[in-house]
């Protein structure tokens, strides 16, 4: 892990309760033809993503006693 990655990792919040910390993939900045995407399109792709990597779970995640 590089020094920059280590610094970013220390700034991530620690999930509490039932919260989950998820990293979303960064969307491609250009279309296949080389046209640069508008910032709105990039934003929509980022928040509309259905794929993410779970980084950390809060202590109450998936702890349903029933």
- Individual helix count: 2
Provide the spatial order of strands within the biggest beta sheet: 1-2
Major sheet = 2 strands, antiparallel
Q: What's the SSE pattern?
A: HEHE
Strand content bin? 5-15%
SSE class: alpha+beta
| Principal-axis shape | flat
Mean pLDDT: 86
Pick out the low-confidence regions.
Answer: none
Work out the radius of gyration: 16 Å
Gap from first CA to last CA: 40 Å
Number of strands: 2
Number of domain units: 1
How is this structure best summarized?
The chain is an alpha+beta fold. The chain is built from 2 helices and 2 strands; from the N terminus they run αβαβ. The protein has one domain.
List keywords for this structure.
single chain, 66 residues, alpha+beta, flat
What does this structure look like?
The mean pLDDT is 86. The protein is an alpha+beta fold. It is flat, with a radius of gyration of 16 Å. The protein is 27% helix and 14% strand. The protein contains 2 helices and 2 strands, in the order αβαβ. It has a two-stranded antiparallel ribbon with strand order 1-2. It has helices spanning 3-11, 39-47; strands at 20-23, 53-57.
